[in-house]
Each structure stands twice: as structure tokens, then as C-alpha cells.
Amino acid sequence: MPEPHIDAISSHPWVERAWHTGADEVVIQPRAEALAVHPVLGPLVREHLEHWSEVYEWIYRTSDTAQPADLDLSGWRASDTGEPLPREHMVDWIDRTVELVREAKPRCVLELGCGSGLLLRHLHADVERYVGTDVSEVVVERLRAAALSGVRPVIAAAHELGSPQVVEALSGRRPDCVLLNSVTQCFPGGDYLDAVVGAALELVSDGGRVIVGDFRHAGLADRYYRWLEPDDEAAALRAAADEEFVFDPRLLARIAARATRPVSVSVRAKTMAADTELTRYRCDVVLHVSAEPAPRPAVVAWHTLTGDRLTAARALVEAGPVVVSGIPHALLEDDPEGVRPHVLRACLAGTGAIVGLDLDHPTRLQVCPPTGTPAGEILPPSDATTQEPLTRFVAHRLPEVVRDHLHRMLPGVTPPALTVAYGRNAR
Ligand SMILES: C[S@@+](CC[C@H](N)C(=O)[O-])C[C@H]1O[C@@H](n2cnc3c(N)ncnc32)[C@H](O)[C@@H]1O
């Protein structure tokens, strides 16, 4: 292989270095700047974000305009059948999420990736200001046209939460709730999540909350693929084709532990009644910023409760702050003692306790106070528990870009096979 190939490849501004691994094979290592999320987005990260904004722009442009504005379910389809998720289930999903946001009675909400406004349309009347941002121009224009009271729609990506347009829409106020619901799956990976959630934690007012809702739990990813495809090989293919950012809630605790103010972390199970992928494999995390320190609850194991355990758990919660741990999630564990999350929620109604998810065993539920655990007390996840879409994106996109560059630099010369050293396959 003549060296001009290597020189030409290395001259591309997104390439750090390139080297031969065989006669006609070259490995390329991207430059850190091309992958940066801060202070400016690198071009590969920007392209990844553009990919998702194009996906959603298309979904919204082609959506059925006959849907009621407050129940525009465009894009909400089951992964196994491709069919729309049942309407009653989505209504339950909205109700539960609206309930989660209302829990702390916010007055000023900033929602990053607000979409068609499924949550915003139910929440704006309760608050003084609701700023909804999205990368899709279509939905932002539709929300502007709706002229809902207190609502300021802004075209902005999640990492632009401190941009002049967002600051202006907030009228200089600090939100007491920053909401990222069902949007992190479009993120390129942990660095972007870190940049967005880190900035949200700095922006939110004292005592406020950052809610990262409805994301797929990495600790349940293998079960999810097996639920979609009982066959091993087909499940592995599903996993290999997965384009979404899937992460462990402990990643949010690691980000929160670096915030300049104390943050406590509450991990919630989804508690809709229907047995769907949303109820099984997703969760919500609430990050409380500078909240009053909560008394440390006693911990009681579910299997030690006697009689009707649900009644016993409720009686414990009514007596004082307590965590009832180790409750098998009936949709995820084949255990006769298992409980469905919505049954547990109904049993706790009016107590203030919530249905949590065990950080170490995501197939186990917990009954706990809504306040959560100080972020610094939560052990960080291993890197293996995160699925970074940017790695896969770079693996196909960078060779495409470099091949075009080679065609321009060395016209008529056949380019070598190109592979990328980045992420887990880096040297
Ligand atoms: C599944 S919808 C969720 C909408 C809304 N949050 C909800 O819970 O109903 C995801 C939305 O996130 C937007 N989105 C995707 N990537 C984004 C990003 N990096 N920043 C802001 N919005 C983004 C999409 O355009 C889409 O409207």
C-alpha cells in the first residue's frame, strides 16, 4: 500500500491518524474534536443529532392531522409489531408522567424535546411558564400556532438549553423543573447526556428537579431483545441493529454527583396497567437539586412481610419513611410472589410513597419515599451497561466521508477498506 493513501486520509480534518493493518486495509482514528460535545459540537455528533431530527421531522410531517392535538401519537409504535401502541395505554402513560411532573408542583417548566406537546398540553395550565424546545421545526410551529397560555415553544436541541432563545423564552427565570421525557434515546451517548443533564442541574432553581423520563434501562436491554425475538440469533440481530441510546440509571447518579449542589436520585418504575415494552423496559429518574435532606429510611425486605404483603407494606409506609425492597416485578420475573407495578401504585395511593426500581436488580421493585438517595452514595455503573449509538454511527459514517475525501484527493485510485478505531474497538 503506497503511503499517499495514509497521508491523504490523515489530512481529513476529522481524522487524528490512520495506519495499515493489511495490504489494502486502513484503520482510522477520529479526532477528539470531531466527537466533542463541549464547548462546540463536533461534526460527527452534529450529524448524529441531524439524523434524529430528520427522522422526527418526517414523522411529524407525515402524521395523521385528524388526531386530536392533545393526543398526537405520531411515532408511538410497538417495536415488535410496528403497530400503533394502544390509545388507552398511551393515555395511561401520559397521566403517569403528568403526575410525576406535578408531584413537586413546579411553576416554571423547561421541557427539552417536547415533541407534539403530549405532556405540555396537559401541564401548561398549572404553571406560569412552560418552555418547550424541540429540534423539529414542524412541531414547534404547530405549538406556536396553538398559542397555549404560558407556553413558549423554541426550536433548539437539548444541549442548547442555555442559548439566548431559551433564556429569553424563560424570561430570565430559572426553571424549577427541567424535563427530558422520552428523548434521551435520540442522544449520541453518555458524553452528550452528561453535557445536557449537567447543564440542566446547574440551571434548575434550588429545590427544583431534573426529570429524565421514559428511557430504556440498559440492565433490561437483553430481556427486551429476547422479548422481541425469542430466538437467540434473531435477538442478537435486534441488539446489533439497535440505534437508540440505552443506559443504566446509575449513569445519571454519576453525572449528578459532580453537580455543584447536592442532588438526590430517585429511580422510578413505569406503572401503567398494560403489559407493553414501555411498562416493562423503561424507567424514570428524578434528580432533586438541593432538596432538604430527608431522614434515612429503614429498609425492610419484602419477603419478610407476613400476611397480605401489600397491606403490610402500606401499613409500614404509613408509619414512617421506609424502603420495602426486593419486590419481584411480575412482568419481568417468573415468581408467584411477583407484583405488577400498577397494583403496587394503587396500594400506595395517598401515602406519598412511590414505586421505585432497585438499582442493582432492575427486575425488582421497591416501595420508597419520593426523595431518593444522595447521588454520591450510588456506585457508578460499569461502561458495559451503556450502549453508545455514536460508536456505531462513526463506524459507518467516517469511512464514507473519508472515501469521498480520497476520491477528491487521489482521483482514479481505488480506496482501501476502512475501519474505525473508536469506542470499544479503539486500540
Ligand atoms: C418521542 S418524542 C417525545 C416528546 C415528548 N417529550 C413526550 O414525552 O411526549 C422525542 C422528541 O425529541 C426530539 N428530539 C430528538 N433529539 C433531540 C435533541 N437532541 N434535542 C431536542 N429534541 C430532540 C424529537 O424531535 C421528538 O420530538
Instruction: Estimate percent helicity.
Output: 25-40%
The backbone outline, from C-alpha atoms, is globular
Number of helices: 14
Instruction: Give me the count of strands.
Output: 15
CATH architect. name of the largest domain: 3-Layer(aba) Sandwich
Poorly predicted regions are: none
Distance between the termini: 21 Å
C-alpha Rg, in Å? 23 Å
Write down the secondary-structure element order. Answer: HEEHHEHEHEHEHEHHHEHEEHEHEEEHE
Structure overview:
It is built from 14 helices and 15 strands. It has 427 residues and is of the alpha/beta class. It has 3 domains: 3-30 and 389-425, Alpha-Beta Plaits (2-Layer Sandwich), CATH 3.30.70; 49-293, Rossmann fold (3-Layer(aba) Sandwich); 295-370. The strands form 3 sheets. The protein has an 8-stranded mixed sheet, with helices on both faces. Strands 10-11-13-12 form a 4-stranded mixed sheet. It has a 3-stranded mixed sheet with strand order 1-2-15, with helices on one face. Helix 8 (221-228) crosses helix 9. It is globular and about 80 Å long. The mean pLDDT is 94. 35% of the residues lie in helices and 20% in strands. Bound molecules: S-adenosylmethionine (SAM).
In a few lines, what is going on in this structure?
This protein has 427 residues and is an alpha/beta fold. Helix content is 35%, strand content 20%.
